Amino acid sequence: MEIPYTVTARKDTGLFNSKIGIWLFLASEVMLFGGLFSGYVFLRIYADYPWPERALPVLPGLINTFVLIGSSVTVVFAWASLKMRQWGRFQFFMGITLLCAVAFMVLKGIEYNAKWGHQAVRLDDFTIVEGHLHKATLDENGDMHVIHKGGAGAHGDAGDKGDAHGGDASKGDDGKEKFYANVVVVETEQVKFTLTRAYQPYVDDLLEQVAKRGGKLVLAADFAGRTDPDDETEVWFKQGDELTPAMLKKAKSLYLKARAHNGEVRTAALKASWKDAKKQDENQGKDGWEYAEKVQQDFDKRLAGDAAAQLVDVPASMTFTAEPNFPLIFKRSLIREGEGVSKLKDDTEIVGKVASSPLGLAVDAIDLRFVAQRAIEQGKDPETVIDGLWIMQKPEYQALWEMHRAKVTALEKELLEDYGVDEFGNAKRVPTETERYRIDWQDMVAFHEAGEQGLAADDPKIEELRPGALAGFAGPSHKNEEMAEAFISLDIPNEKVAFESKFTPKWNNYYAIYFTLTGLHGLHVIGGAIVLAYYMFFSKGLYLRNPEWLANRVEIGGLFWHFVDLVWIFLFPILYLM
Amino acid sequence: MADTPEAIRKSQKLYLLIGAILFIFTVVTVAVATVPALDVGRHGFDTADMILGLAIATFKASLVGAIFMHLNHEKGLIYLLFGFGIVFGIALMGLTAWAYSDITTYGNEKSRDGFYSTELPANN
């Protein structure tokens, strides 16, 4: 059967089928993206932290805008070529469109990768430090050392593995185990697993580490009990038995069996209590809730009496002793440190002292806006609060801050000279909060150069070091050795770290909505490119049979592609420039 | 809409022109946001910059819609369909604005007219 109106338009609407289809779809897309843009506005208005204004490097976004606009032009030319029955020209323009799509996604990939490899830390005094993680190693005594310069993998790359310990553990040239300096080291004495919660990958990682340290985890006490009330107490695992995954698995199944049995006993006892209560004369004509308390008392009595003999007992947890005591390393986000006992996300308790495990990174930005915001809220002078921060007690950071302050003063002066004062005598234009309280990576590079030139903080030449708007392509490069020298290493003690994350949705709502919007947009680019590629590579037959039909198809694909461009036209200024 | 090969041949110049305008206004968007001399309103990003940035983006989007997507001379049904999308899209934005004025989100503050006071009645 031939489907009508695929090539020619319907008389009443003047449209062919797929055109109505695509516009219906685009209307739904407007609502989808509209809702997300709305979400963006909502998150920004209600942000109770300094919104990362103009936080992304502009150049990749700008290039991607050019790429998408260019592809919008070429896709319309591809359609026009088909209308003029020029197959070769169609392929040429469609080819360029597809190359643009690939270029867009590659650039997006580079941008994403930079964020996934970039570390942010919020200290307990609300200082925010950004940079790249160093690697660290354990010495013979189990003490952790951050490797600051040189050595294999001194600067971290993107991505951590999802295991319980410090991400990609690798071996350096000296054969020593190296891991990202974002871990918590515990001088482990005991490990206690909650049988129902113990997460297999964590257990495997733990065992791997135990083997590396040349130690053993042995059962602290006999694991004994009974799953049948008629049986004698049985010892399934003896004190001193070494931990194996199979052991935990068996213990878990025994515990679950006992729990199920006890559940049945309790249910039976409760049912019996209700049955008896209902039979009693005094309860006739009453609702259940009126004598529920008495039922509960009867149930408690049963449990303590007859039913008690029916209950069985299997421990819910298993405790192992470390022989000898050895350090275990855990990824910071998976462990909650405590006094003497730390807990993993699966409730596994690690008994032992938390060793010195600083978070080591090469700092490429210091954000003091949060500190300033909080100081103002509390009626304090931000500058005084900043001077008292932990990081400012380090001379190199204090010097950096002094230079930054000099730069802001110079800017203040310049704005006053250029724009003057208003009728109240206040400067018409003043530096923004970001300019005042954020030391960006470009600033760090500039100040490093200034330091090399021997410029003092009060030297007027400092202001000349202000970086240009388009300086830097995909943010700071820690692989560029010259630039990396400007990024001062910092070891943050474990107890100072309040929150840490890569620049992922976890870090704040800005990155959450950034990844949602650009990710969804990226999926549209991929989807659109697949459709356009199909037209280009697999439609020669249709072109020869019915070129107008193909032209209509390309028009539909083109409409979608223009819409993708249209969304980006709004995304670019909102995410990169505002 | 240019439908005949002859008309399409002619409109290609227009497509190129629109492409060039879009390129130029992209540069303008970046320039007004980053070059201090072109900064409108207060120094740095503020409402004036936001309005200007979004106005340029809307202008660019209108060009894409009108010329590349042929909305400048489309059939009535298309306007109806797309119009629905736009209206509902704006309605979603409106929900945000509505939520923003929702008194319950302001904790114990009193609203200006005192009508939606969150304080409990005295006898409660």
Write the layout of secondary structure elements.
The complex is a heterodimer of chains A (578) and B (124).
Chain A: H1 17-46, H2 58-83, H3 87-116, E1 119-123, E2 128-133, E3 135-138, E4 144-147, E5 170-171, E6 177-180, E7 183-194, H4 200-213, E8 216-219, E9 223-225, E10 234-237, H5 245-279, H6 292-304, H7 306-310, E11 317-331, E12 335-336, E13 341-344, E14 349-354, E15 359-367, H8 369-377, H9 382-387, H10 395-419, H11 433-437, E16 438-439, H12 441-453, H13 481-484, E17 489-492, E18 497-502, H14 509-538, H15 540-545, H16 547-577
Antiparallel strand pairs in A: 1-2, 1-18, 2-15, 3-4, 3-6, 5-6, 7-11, 7-14, 8-11, 9-10, 12-13, 13-14, 15-16, 15-17
Chain B: H1 5-34, H2 47-68, H3 76-100
Summarize the structure.
The complex is a heterodimer of chains A (578) and B (124). Chain A is built from 16 helices and 18 strands.
How would you describe the overall organization of this protein?
- The complex is a heterodimer of chains A (578) and B (124).
- Chain A has helices at 17-46, 58-83, 87-116, 200-213, 245-279, 292-304, 306-310, 369-377, 382-387, 395-419, 433-437, 441-453, 481-484, 509-538, 540-545, 547-577; strands spanning 119-123, 128-133, 135-138, 144-147, 170-171, 177-180, 183-194, 216-219, 223-225, 234-237, 317-331, 335-336, 341-344, 349-354, 359-367, 438-439, 489-492, 497-502.
- By secondary structure, chain A is α+β, with helices and mostly antiparallel strands.
- In chain A, the strands form 4 sheets. In chain A, strands 1, 2, 15, 16, 17 and 18 form a 6-stranded antiparallel beta sheet that branches. Chain A has a 6-stranded antiparallel beta sheet with strand order 8-11-7-14-13-12.
- In chain A, a hairpin with a 4-residue loop joins β13 (341-344) and β14 (349-354).
- In chain A, α2 runs antiparallel to α16 (547-577) and α14 packs antiparallel against α16.
- The longest helix of chain A has 35 residues, at 245-279.
- Chain A is extended.
- The relative contact order of chain A is 0.16.
- Chain B is mostly helical.
- Chain B has 2 domains: 5-73, no CATH class; 75-124, no CATH class.
- Chain B has helices spanning 5-34, 47-68, 76-100.
- The radius of gyration of chain B is 23 Å and the shape is flat.
- The mean pLDDT of chain B is 81.
- Chains A and B meet through α1, α2 and α16 of A and α1, α2 and α3 of B.
